[in-house]
Amino acid sequence: QLQLVESGGGLVQPGGSLRLSCAASGFTLDGYSIGWFRQAPGNKREGVACISSSDGVMDYAESVRGRAAISRDNAKNTVYLQLNNLKPEDTANYYCAVYSKPLSSFIQALVRYYAGEFEHWGQGTQVTVSS
Fold this sequence. Notes:
4-stranded antiparallel β-sheet; 1 helix; globular
């Protein structure tokens, strides 16, 4: 019954902000590492951010570092991705996924993703940045 549902996307002008949500059901998010990924039409899926299950260490792709913040709300069983100073190149469908072990860095998250060890749920939430 493990399920992740993304929400919070929308149309925003360059320089604007959005807060994306990843709500879990059927399991407790606190015991998992979480990754945010995105995919634009014609592009491969790429990693955006991650937060570890053990110590909560957070890391980000260079493309969003300084503009993104990942966080947990254990009471709501939800993980968030705050996106600030949005750029047209941020336009994509954003997905969250879970990994069963701690993560030490964003690079390690990518390694585990390419190994097929992240689980993706839901249909994503669309972020469109345009003037």
